[in-house]
Amino acid sequence: MAVLPPDPVFSLRSPDMGAVNSLCFQESDRLLAGTIKGSVFLWDLQTNRSALHFEVGSDPITSLHHTPDRLVTQQKGGTITMFSIGGSSYVKERSIPGNHMGFCRSALHTNTSKTNEQLLFYPCEESSIGVLHVTDAAAPTQILVPDDPQLPKLGSVTCFKPFECASQLFLLAGYESGHFLTWDISSSVILDVLELAQDATTVDYDPVTNRGIVGGPTDKLISFSYQRSSMQLQRGSELCIKNPGVNCVRIRPDQKVFASAGWDGRIRIFSWKSLRPLAVLTQHKNGGVMDLAFSSQPVAMWRAPIMAAAGMDSQISLWDLYN
């Protein structure tokens, strides 16, 4: 007998919220949602109510990140806005105008080798990537430009993932052409180029298990790893899914499972060790699931780490899965 998929522990809804593009946890008992209307909703997971919402702009919020004292948003078009926490609200600090018309999302990384320095990686025009110091406004912004004439024509950047290995900071970046470049951030040097997946929309990588996963508009998820001594990317196996199109892949922090968010509204859960499919979650029936987020610590109400998922059906589902 087939095992029925689990139900969510709760679904968050608000008549004012509408479709959701992006999610992030603030610690573990607060969840932020960025909407296609350009607003941010803060949900209190102790009461499961919206504690605050405010407008960033008229463009959709494509990415959200929260540091201990700041909120960072990315809007469609590429504009980055930073907010500080002021009492019970957020106060706008500064904006960086963007010039990226694609779908690449920004990424926040805590550089543990440099006293927890907070770095924001964000897409710029054409193939360039900006590296911004979140906590130090005076620090210069680093721009990664793949201008080596021997490189193939890359097109726009479509996804990336910063990570640390042996106390060095790297960035794996995918481009429209299907090529993935591995950057050494300290020297702005490209270490490796591999054609992996054309028009990839999402990538995640775990340096502890040395494995990553890529998703895009096809019906396949592609795994990869690194040859550590040379930092050369190596293609792994392919995982077939029933319907094409993946907006997001996320590896859970405990490396037990990973999840994909599909254009078909399905959330697919896989074992990270075996890459075997474990469940297909069907809570979101009207439109694609746009983003997934895992809490880093247990959420008090459910005494377990929680996965949040949201998309075009104007709800945020919360899940306690395989903990």
UniProtKB/TrEMBL annotation:
InterPro entries: WD40/YVTN_repeat-like_dom_sf (IPR015943), WD40_repeat_CS (IPR019775), WD40_repeat_dom_sf (IPR036322), WD40_rpt (IPR001680). Keywords: Repeat, WD repeat. The keyword Ribosomal protein does not apply. It holds the Pfam family WD40. WD repeats lie at residues 307-323. This is Guanine nucleotide-binding protein subunit beta-like protein 1.
